[in-house]
Write a structure and sequence with these properties.
Two copies of one chain form a homodimer.
Chain A lengths: L1 H29 L6 H19 L2 H12 L6 H18 L3 H23 L3 H22 L5 H9 L5 H25 L14 H14 L9 E3 L5 E5 L2 E6 L6 H19 L16 H15 L3 H14 L1 H4 L4 H8 L16 H17 L7 H13 L24 H21 L2 H7 L3 H10 L9 H9 L6 H16 L2
Parallel strand pairs in A: 1-3
Antiparallel strand pairs in A: 2-3
């Protein structure tokens, strides 16, 4: 089986480059001193260049193509490896090198311009770059596919198997069912936001509580660590090294608590992937959507459940007696599930969050498929905000300029966030048939829940596609109704009961 | 000048690999979770393998050889670059690739094992690795040289131009002049160690004082950072990224203070190298000995001088009033220069320190030239401690397992520490002719001293050999008598005057 060995040998080298670049990126994002970057960027681009040359070398491409032709003779795992490799190659091989290089340069420039534009609240500054990125993205798709729907290709890039047709159905359900429901909740909600939410919480104490959460969620500190960074993220190279970061806002303690639980969801997924997959290209989460389903399962379904806090609220009160000793568990539970109209996606609550994504999905769809002019985008953005969330951003920075994604060319990424929440609700429905979820949370025993997720989802890494996972775990294909029902039940009980 | 361009192009790639490996090593030594190492070691060995293959490729070797032949036509800087490249090639060319790759893997693993062994006071755990490292080192030398004295080769690796013959002379001076002098000092020394030395000093406050020291010594935090690790070290990739670590012992505050000043000496050396050298292979300190001369100059000649503390002692007292408000400057000065028999090299005082190195030099000499069995090493170690320092370690962790060096294959390294102190004393003698050293310390103005060292030593990186530097700066070759005289004068005044 010489071709297979060649494939694996080169793959191993690619994994080595990737590990080295990954470690450098962890360093860059958490502690590297600011003057090191020009030299570092130049040197690391040499390493990525080597890696790219190897991945597109006739030797590797030939091996992948040959194995792909003969894939029916391979074991399920080997076949999946080859399919993954082929999928990656298809994305990069057909794009002329200079087009790609120009695009990377454009993105580098755009991200800087976007930062300036956001800081100076100046959409016009970013507009020409956005226009160019969209045009290039459309062009890049044409190298790869003969399609009149480039957005479909991008959606599939971020979540294999997804398309406008499927997302339309999903977001239609959100639009018809959640938009009016949110209005109902907001109308019924008490006016005054509880003061404890934005009280002062000492940073060092927040960190101590996050460390408590790591223990509660059974995060293995022999295989990872917690650090601080401007934007929380999870970082992993293989199952034995999965780290995450949070940030500590002293006037918003929920930021570190729920970012931590969110990142713990991502991290546990990566840590629980079968160690045997570490020598393959399957040793990471299967898709953006499934990854997000795990982070949101932990953050929202566990972390914002009353049963969870019935066990752990005392510890939080003990850590912050001044802020919380007068706050009852019921009031705290309402506080961590406080619903409000807000402009900024990353600060949105669980219930309004999918509406933020709905807006972005419709915007991207309009940009790519209806060829809407970039000139009119801010107006359209604000109009949708008003329609769905009854709030209008007063600046572009709080509106269309708020997210980094588009400046990095990541169109088709946003929808996976909402999809992840919906997957999570569907998994949750099945889990409740196997486990007494509430009793476990009340007992503070997360092991059966972790084990269930590991057993049904985590261990497989990329061995199973998102569609396959949904089917295997829940017995049916993706069905957004679980999500709608979960949200309605939870928030009806919280806000509409009386 | 096609050959030159080829040389520089490949060198740039080598520097990229080296940067990536360096960043990984910083991570490994400061925070990487313990279970990540087997996979990481395997992957990084692939990168070193690639780098090794490139450095030993006919294309690069041919370019270096050709430039070396024509070196008389090159500028001084280019010539030195080629000489360095040739020197490195001479060291590695004859080593088979798989032997080298296996060795790198062995070292990655050994360092982890050593940490465990030290923590668990278990020499037997480390023994087989040590044995394998020594055997491999000997084997590696035989690939390079037809010699019956492998240790000579290793000594020259760490300090170009040094040999057993020269070190024997140096350590003979230490043995004949310092060993009896130390006994004299110890006999005259008051019995009771001042209590403030080992009082409790809060770790967070120690860190704050180390940060103060960084400012005092004009360390640029835009080009580096401070972190914590088991064994303090300085790390650098180029002049714009030079970091260092210390550790905080709550019952021995001098550990963090003087480790910090020591590492600051290493770090300032690297930061002060001309930025123009960053694109060459000359952008690091010229030798271990010269590097150590700078760290020890800062640590001992500045950091343990009374004039230095006449300026900064108040700040330390303010940070630790409970421990120090009743301690006079004179008593503090005696405390930071307290001489005693001790087991741990890195905690040793300035005067007994060279005796710790004498022991290691003799141990390594015995291991490599007398072929002594690893089984008997702990006994031999303890015997020498007893003879020279009149103290015997009660555990392996306090004896033979205390240092990281051997687990990293660094035999021949230790002697450069004592050599560095001796170089430093020789530089100091010259500096005092140019600057009013004491007045500057009393004024807290380290800039002229930093500038003098930058101007005479730091900026040149590897452009000048150790021998050349000594000659250019002090007007004479290395002369150990400056060191002996410096120590005797200082410690006679402190302990033998009355």
């Amino acid at each position: 089986m010489q071709t297979w060995d060649r494939f694996k040998a080169i793959q191993k080298k690619l994994k080595a480059y990737s590990l080295a670049l990954n470690i450098a990126s962890w360093d860059s994002n958490t502690e590297a001193p600011k003057k090191c970057f020009p030299y570092r960027a130049e040197m690391l681009s040499i390493i990525s260049g080597e890696s790219f040359a190897l991945e597109t070398s006739p030797e590797y491409v030939g091996a992948v193509e040959a194995m792909y032709e003969a894939r029916e003779n391979l074991s399920a795992q080997d076949r999946e490896e080859v399919i993954q490799a082929k999928r990656t190659l298809d994305k990069i091989l057909k794009i002329p090198k200079d087009v790609y290089t120009d695009y990377v340069k454009l993105l580098n420039m755009s991200q800087r311009i976007w930062e300036d534009a956001k800081e100076n609240d100046d959409y016009d500054l970013f507009k020409p770059y956005l226009e160019k990125i969209v045009a290039t993205q459309k062009q890049l798709v044409t190298y790869r596919h003969d399609t009149s729907d480039p957005y479909n290709v991008l959606l599939d890039d971020f979540e294999a198997g997804m398309s406008m047709e499927k997302y339309d159905a999903f977001f239609d359900a959100i639009k018809t069912e959640l938009v009016p429901f949110v209005k109902e909740v907001l109308a019924a909600r008490p006016n005054k936001k509880p003061a404890f939410i934005e009280a002062f919480y000492d940073k060092a104490d927040q960190k101590r509580f996050v460390e408590k959460l790591m223990a509660i969620f059974q995060y293995d500190t022999d295989r990872g660590l917690l650090k601080e960074s401007v934007h929380p993220f999870t970082w992993n190279t293989h199952s034995q090294d999965v780290r995450f970061t949070v940030r500590y806002l002293e006037n918003f303690v929920f930021s570190s608590i729920f970012a931590a639980i969110h990142e713990l969801g991502h991290a546990l997924y990566e840590m629980n992937i079968a160690e045997a997959l570490d020598t393959t290209n399957l040793n990471t989460g299967t898709s953006m959507g499934i990854h997000e389903s795990q982070s949101r399962f932990y953050e929202n379904i566990i972390g914002r459940d009353k049963a969870f806090w019935s066990k752990h609220y005392q510890a939080l009160q003990d850590m912050f007696p001044k802020q919380l000793s007068d706050v009852s568990l019921d009031d705290f539970y309402l506080g961590i599930n406080w619903v409000e109209e807000s402009c900024i996606r990353v600060e949105a609550d669980e219930l309004t969050y999918p509406l933020h994504i709905l807006i972005r999905y419709e915007m991207e769809r309009a940009i790519f498929n209806d060829g809407i002019d970039v000139e009119t985008l801010p107006k359209l953005w604000n109009h949708k905000m008003k329609t769905y969330l009854n709030i209008e951003p007063s600046t572009a920075s709080e509106g269309i300029l708020q997210d980094v994604h588009w400046s990095g060319g990541a169109f088709g990424y946003f929808p996976t966030y909402a999809l992840g929440s919906a997957y999570a609700a569907q998994f949750y429905d099945t889990m409740q048939k196997d486990l007494d979820f509430t009793a476990l949370l009340e007992a503070g025993d997360l092991k059966p829940i972790n084990d269930w997720l590991k057993d049904k989802i985590h261990q497989f890494g990329k061995l199973k596609s998102p569609e396959q996972l949904l089917l295997d775990v829940t017995g049916e294909p993706f069905n957004p109704q679980y999500y709608i029902r979960y949200l309605k039940e939870k928030y009806r009980a919280l806000y509409l009961k009386g």
